[in-house]
Design brief:
The protein is of the alpha+beta class. The chain contains 31 helices and 28 strands.
């Protein structure tokens, strides 16, 4: 359908078009003869200059399948055009049209060029300098059809961006269906479409004669030639003229210079030239089928008969040599290459006729399809036994087990595995497309930032906590995994150049925050976002905030098919390379965990861990941003950085797409998932994630009780933003001191643990209020010992998340360019003392953290972040 958008946008005959128009009613007979009447929503309703109607876009494969299921609705008409008779009947009654657009009609060159220019179809497009524009137009006017490369060389002050803007805004004309813009040495430039058409008509000439045709005319008596559609034969070759005879009746003489001139112009061609291509094809086929042993045997035979062919032998050839000489001379007459006759025809020897009847073969194929290729996954021997019994019952001779087994293995592996084990197992047998057809869109784009991939992986290394080392304590019991943990790596890779645009490392599992961080790092490093982002089917890529952000910046999200890793092979391959070159060279790597039974305490990666998150992120950035991208890539034959710079030079810098990091930081903040991201302004402010946030603009009468859009910072719960009076304002929490430095993930953890604690203590309230959360975080930072074991577990869970967040903050400091080391957090010291002084045998307390009456509200289940 995307190609349909492109064509409609660029079609001069189209005035307006609407996608997903109101449905229309189709009335037709089904395959079984039953009357079908239902509503159908076409893809487009198009208003053209002289007509209007509905247009439907489908793939050729889908239409072929639907034509078999519903032949009265989908029909392949003349000239390969698809038709929908019920749709055409409905449209004709209204004086409109209904047409199909199949994928077979896609103009792939046009689509590639449209994607190339898509960044320049924007309202805020910069204007080309007037002097540059005049210089370009004057050169094009003086030299119609000049190619882009020569135009850039003639107008030195013009950049590739300037030419792309002139083409996108129709100030100069380029046939977008002729040649990809990625090949500027072949792209012709004109002032307008009429000039291009006129130029094409004037420069039309007959196709030049190929060299093979010219050279094929052998000037000797007996050679047949073709001249002006008639066949002639050379009967005499003299010093000054050549004699030609036509049909043994007409004889003429041509001077040698005239004959040679006619041959050079292609007006005289040898009849041999017309059959030479077919002879060459036949010779190539014979040589292709000849094995190495066949060629060795032909060489041996030629060496044996060479003296007789040259007349240098004093002996007589034996019977085999006479047979070889005869074959050599016959092949020389037929193929003009006698060596062909010396190749042995072993492949034609033997009896290749089928040994079983067609009836038995049909029965065998039916048993393989109905008994073997099923989800029961029966063995070949078991199916053969059933087949053998069936043959005995029908009184026919059954084939051998070996022949049956060969018949099973000769069937298509993909279809067979699909029927026996499902589509995931069959994916390994699916045909691998090493490259797309020349005219189709390249799988990795034609320039940097056109197609990029985002993906996550858990690093193969155990890390230690720098916070634990800083406070000098042993808090392994705080985390379920002890003091060590494996981080998660999120990457953004440019598919065209294989350059890593952004890398982010965190202890948290993949989430919306990881996606936002790699995009934020990309904007910080390059000031722009990709045109298309390829992702898998993870929940973090389907969030409304992520999709809204991409839509705002005109980024297209493309999701890989489920369980088909080859669609992300570019970034998946790098994960393997990073393991070999980086992670597996660090102390504490988890290679040995592949063989768990061989792991002992002395070699356990958890006991070997020495790297902290901050330090390993420093070296990871150095590896991906310096070492990897400056080393030659095997698929590119140059480094990713050089490929990236060359692609930018070829495709243009596109500076009008630059994004302010501060602007992007605000827009990348998430919104609450409910109520379309809006909150009602009350006397206390706006409530986000159980906390109230206030700004002085809320005191206005017009703002009070209105719904405003809100955003929050995932890394600091004391800050939120609200869209008031057409601007985003920064709001603060009333519990600033108690909540300072805590993240939303930590807030969620505390809320969940408090809910569990309340259930155990039989509390009759259901809302986790901001006041209660503030009291809980305050208790974490004080030496309170009157908590029960459930309270102890709550503290442990909060501290575990607190430790992760403090580690990630050091990574954020590196991203922002802050080299200051993280100071130990006082709350960790206090909580360590609190937890170490508690006893597991403490009785359940009779009182919990006090609550006010205002805190008792209906509890709403907290969604997973």
């Amino acid at each position: 359908m995307s190609n349909g958008f492109y064509k409609l946008e660029h079609d001069e005959d189209v005035l307006e078009y609407y996608d997903q128009p109101p449905p229309i009613e189709l009335n037709y007979l089904s395959k079984s003869g039953r009357r079908n009447r239902h509503l159908h929503t076409p893809d487009f309703f198009v208003i053209r200059k002289n007509t209007a109607g509905w247009e439907e876009c489908k793939t050729q494969e889908e239409l072929l399948k639907k034509a078999q299921e519903s032949p009265n609705r989908y029909q392949l008409g003349e000239h390969g055009k698809w038709q929908c008779p019920p749709g055409e009947e409905y449209a004709h009654a209204l004086g409109l049209y209904y047409s199909f657009r199949s994928s077979a009609e896609i103009d792939w060159v046009f689509q590639r060029n449209f994607i190339w220019l898509e960044d320049y179809f924007q309202a805020k497009l910069p204007q080309v300098d007037e002097e540059v524009s005049r210089a370009v137009l004057s050169v094009v006017e003086a030299e119609p059809g000049i190619v882009l490369t020569d135009l850039l060389n003639r107008v030195e002050q013009a950049r590739i961006d300037d030419l792309n803007i002139l083409i996108a805004t129709d100030q100069v004309y380029v046939d977008l269906s002729a040649v990809p813009l990625r090949q500027p040495e072949q792209v012709q430039v004109f002032l307008d479409q009429e000039e291009a058409f006129t130029y094409a008509q004037v420069t039309k000439i007959a196709p030049p004669t190929s060299v093979s045709q010219v050279c094929a005319v052998k000037v000797s008596a007996g050679t047949s030639i073709s001249w002006d559609g008639e066949n002639w034969q050379i009967v005499n070759t003299g010093n000054t003229s050549i004699g030609l005879l036509k049909d043994n009746v007409e004889f003429i003489q041509l001077p040698n210079k005239v004959f040679e001139s006619l041959v050079e112009k292609g007006q005289i061609t040898g009849l041999l030239a017309q059959t030479e291509s077919s002879l060459n094809t036949e010779i190539e086929e014979i040589l292709r089928k000849a094995s190495k042993r066949d060629r060795e045997e032909a060489n041996r035979r030629y060496k044996a008969i060479e003296p007789f062919l040259n007349g240098n032998s004093s002996t007589k050839p034996n019977r085999s040599e006479r047979r070889w000489i005869t074959s050599y001379r016959e092949a020389e007459k037929i193929y003009q290459r006698g060596f062909i006759g010396l190749l042995p025809n072993h492949q034609q020897k033997g009896n290749y006729q089928p040994k079983i009847s067609e009836e038995v073969r049909t029965l065998m194929e039916a048993f393989i399809e109905d008994k073997y290729e099923t989800l029961k996954q029966q063995s070949i021997s078991r199916v053969y036994s059933s087949f053998k019994e069936e043959c005995i019952q029908q009184g026919i001779k059954h084939p051998s087990y070996e022949l049956f087994r060969q018949a099973v293995h000769e069937r298509p592996a993909y279809e067979q595995t699909l029927k026996r084990k499902g589509h995931r197992a069959a994916y390994q047998e699916e045909l691998f497309y090493w490259r797309l057809d020349r005219e189709n869109t390249p799988p990795h784009g034609e320039r940097p930032f056109e197609i990029c991939h985002i993906d996550h992986t858990q690093a193969d290394v155990e890390l230690v906590s720098s916070i634990m080392a800083a406070i000098g304590g042993n808090l392994e019991f705080v985390s379920n995994n002890g003091n060590q943990e494996r981080p998660w790596l999120t990457l953004l890779m440019d598919a065209h150049s294989r350059r890593i645009l952004a890398a982010y490392l965190t202890f948290d599992s993949p989430s919306y925050r990881s996606c936002m961080m790699v995009l934020r790092i990309c904007v910080q490093r390059f000031g722009r976002l990709p045109q298309m982002i390829v992702v898998d089917n993870g929940a973090e890529f389907n969030s409304s905030d992520f999709e809204t952000l991409l839509a705002y910046y005109r980024c297209t999200k493309k999701q890989r098919p489920p369980a088909k890793g080859r669609f992300g092979s570019v970034i998946e391959r790098f994960f393997g390379v990073a393991n070999q070159e980086f992670w597996h060279n660090l102390k504490g790597n988890t290679q040995i965990m592949r063989n768990v039974r061989q792991v002992t305490k002395g070699v356990n990666p958890k006991n070997q861990a020495v790297w902290t998150l901050r330090k390993v992120y420093e070296y990871l950035c150095e590896y991906v941003y310096e070492v990897y991208e400056t080393s030659p890539h095997p698929a590119l034959r140059l480094s990713p950085r050089d490929a990236f710079n060359a692609g930018i030079a070829r495709g243009g810098s596109r500076e009008h797409l630059l994004i302010s990091p501060d602007e992007f930081r605000l827009l990348s903040l998430p919104s609450p998932t409910d109520r379309e991201g809006k909150r009602k302004v009350t006397r206390e402010g706006v409530k986000i994630n159980h906390l109230y946030y206030w700004h002085k603009s809320f005191s206005g009468i017009k703002v009070r009780d209105s719904d405003v859009e809100v955003k929050y910072d995932p890394f600091d719960i004391t800050v939120a933003y609200a869209y008031v009076n057409k601007e985003w304002v920064k709001c603060s929490s009333g519990y600033l001191q108690e909540l300072q430095g805590h993240s939303v993930r930590e807030l969620m953890t505390a809320t969940t643990e408090l809910k569990k604690l309340n259930q155990i203590q039989n509390q009759r309230f259901s809302e986790i209020s901001g006041k209660r959360l503030a009291q809980f975080f305050a208790s974490v930072e004080k030496k309170e010992v009157a908590l029960s074991p459930p309270g102890r577990e709550a503290k442990k869970a909060v501290l575990a998340q607190r430790r992760r967040d403090l580690e990630v903050k050091q990574v954020h400091a590196l991203i922002e360019g802050d080299s200051v080391e993280q100071e130990p957090d006082s709350s960790l010291n206090l909580l360590e003392e609190s937890l170490s002084n508690e006893s597991e045998s403490l009785p359940l307390p009779t009182e919990s953290i006090p609550l006010d009456d205002d805190d008792v509200e209906i509890f709403q289940p907290l969604e997973e972040w």
